[in-house]
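Field: COMPLEX_INPUT
Field: COMPONENT_COUNT = two
Field: RESIDUE_TOTAL = 711
Field: MODE = joint
Values follow.
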Amino acid sequence: MHLSQFRRWLLQSPPVEWAILQLRELLIGALRQGPVPQHIAFVMDGNRRFARQHGIEIVEGHNQGFEALAKILEVCYKSGVKVVTIYAFSIENFKRSKYEVDALMDMAKVKLAQLVQHGDLLEQYGARIQILGQRELIKPDVLEAMDRAVELTKGNGDAILNICCPYTSHAEMTSAIRDTVVEWSQPMEAGPQKEERHFSERHIVHNIRARRLSSNNSNTNHDRLSPNNEALALRSHSPSSGTASDTEESSSDPLTNSSSSTTLNPSTTRSSPPLSSPTSSDNLKSDNNITYPDPELITPATLTNHMYTSSLPPLDLMIRTSGVERLSDFMLWQCHEETEIVFLKVLWPEFDLWGFLPVLVEWQWKQQQRRKGGDVDGQGRGVGKAKTR
Amino acid sequence: MAKSKETDVYRKDASTKHNLLTLKQREDLIKPYLPKAPKSSPTSKRSRPIREFLRNQFHLFVFIIIHLLFSIYIRIRQTYHILFDRALAVLYYHHRAPELIKQDVKGLTRFPEHLSVILELRGDERDQAGLEGLMDELAEIAAWCTCVGIPMLSVYERTGILKHYIPNTHRAVSSKMHSYFGGDVPSLQVGAPNISSYLNGNAAPRTGDASSRHLSILLLSAEDGRSTLVDLTKTLTEMSQRKKLAPSDVSQDLVDAEITESVMGEPDLLILFGQDVKLQGYPPWQIRLTEIYHVQDSNGVGYQVFLRALHNYSKAQMKFGR
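Field: COMPLEX_OUTPUT
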C-alpha cells in the first residue's frame, strides 16, 4: 500500500511527469521514421468487463474507454496515421439493456456536443469526423449532434476519424449491393448518342440489300461470296457509341437496331435474321427504348466504391482488444485480404501507448521483412513515404 | 497522456456532463498537450533548420535502436515458439490412432460443427511437390476431424488449385483415412462451390458406427469471396433491369440466404496455420462471427495447433453482441 502510494506520488511529481511526456514524444517521433499504417481500425472491446473487474458502473467503464480512445487517437495522429476507424456501436448492441444503450447514446451526444464547442481548436488540430452506419437507427437528438460534429469538422483535411455507429458489416455489404443495383438500373440516355452518328442504319440495310440483289443476279461463285465479306466488314466497323453499351452491341447483330438491343430481349434481337425488314426493327425501337449499363461491368472495385469506406486508403491494421478472437461483423469486406489482424488480451480502457507501441513496431518490422523479401506489390505503401520526412 | 491532476479535473467536469468548467478553462486544460500550431511551423522550420535536422536524426537513431531491440526480441520469441511447438508435437503425437486423438479431446464440452482452415500453397503453382504437400496436409486435417467428430471441413487456399483435382484429393484423403481407420473408412464427400461434389462409392451405411461418421470437405478459393458477391450483384442487377425485382427487395436476409446456398454457411472455427493473421481473401460474408484461431509464430500445419484450437474454442463463450 505504501509502495503503491509512493509510486503514485513519484509518477505525479513534475519532473517525472515531464520525463514521461518527453519519452512519449520521442517514441512517437521515432515511429514516424518508419512505415506507418495509413488506416487502422479498432474494435473497442472490454469496457464492461473492465467495469466489472474494477467494481465500477458499466457506464463508468464506457467513460474510461472513451478516455483511452482519446489517448490512442493522439498517438495515431501524431505518428502519422491518416485514418482511424472505430467500432463504437454495433446494430447488435441494441439488444443490450435499454439503460446502457441510452447511456451510451447520451455519452456520444455529450462528447460530440462538447467537441463542437471547440471549433477553432478542432480546425487547427482536429480530424475530420465521419459517421458510418445505419443512420436511420439513431435517435434524432443524437443524430443532430453527430451531424453538427460532421459538419463542423468537414474542412479539416489531414486526418479522418470514422465512427461506426450503428454498424454491421453485413448491413454495409448489403447496402453496397443494393446501391449498385440501383445505380445500374438507371436507364442510360441513348438519345444524344444516336444523333452524333452520321450513318442511317436503314440506309445501310438498303444498301446491302441492293448489293445482294445485284450479286444474286450476276450468279457467279466469286460474286456470291463478296456480299458476305462486305457484311463481315460492316460488322467489324459498325459505329460504336464509345460507352458502356459497346459490349452489348458487339454481341448482338449490328444490322438490327443496335441501340435498342439490351439484355431485356436478347433472344428477339439475336434470333431475328440479319436483314430483318426495317419496319420490324422500328417496332422494336419504340418498344424498349431504355438502355441499361451492362451488369458484366460490375467488379469488386464497384462494390468497394459503394462501401462506407470507399474514398479511404485500404485497411492496414485491425486491432481488437480483450482477447476475443472474432471480427464480430466489423469491416469484413475491408479486412479480409491484406489487413494485418491483431488480437490483444488487454481490455480497452487499459489500452494505451505502451500496449499500442509493440503492435506498431511489429507491423513496421513485418513491412520491412516483406520489403527485404522482395514482394512490395502494393503492400509497402507507407514505406516510400517514410524516407521523405 | 494528461497529468493525473488534470485528469481528475476533467473527470469531475465530465461527471456533471461538462457543466463545471467553462469553455475557456477546458481549452486551457488541454493546451499543453497539443502540438505546435501547424500554421506557425513553416516559419520556425525556416529559422531553425539545423535543430530540425538534428531532431530528425535523433528520432531516426531511436527508431533504429527500437527496431534493433525488437528484432532481437522477435528472434527469441520465434525460437521459443518453435521449441514450444516441437515439445507439444512430441507430447501430443497422434500416432495415426483414432483412439489417441479421441483421448486428447475428451474433456472438451463443445466442438465446432463446421471447421475451416486456411492452407497455403508453397512454391510455384505448377510445382507438383507443392500440390502434393497441400493434399497431404488436407488429408491429415480431414482425418483428425473425422476422429474428433467434426462433420464439415472447409479448406481455403487462395489459388484454388485443389479445385482442379477433386478426384485426386478424394483419393488422397481416402487413402489417409485407410491408414487411420483401417477397413472401417467413414463416408467422405469432396466438393467445391458450384462444382459437383465427389462422393465415395461405399457410402452405403454398413454398421451403425460407420454410418454416423461422415465428412464433407469443401474446397474454397479466392473466387468464392468477393467474386461471389459480385456475381450475386450482377444477377440482382439483371433482375432489376428486367423489372423482376425492386432494389428494396435486396435485404440482408436475401444476400445471406443466397451466399449460404451457393458457397457455405458461417464456419464456427477458423484455424490459421500461417505466420501472420491475414485472411488472404477468405470469403468475407461468412467470417462474421467465426472464431479465428492462430498460434503466434506458427510454422505450418500441425496436430498440436489443431488440438490447441479445439481447446481454445471449447473455452470461448459466444456473446452475439450482448
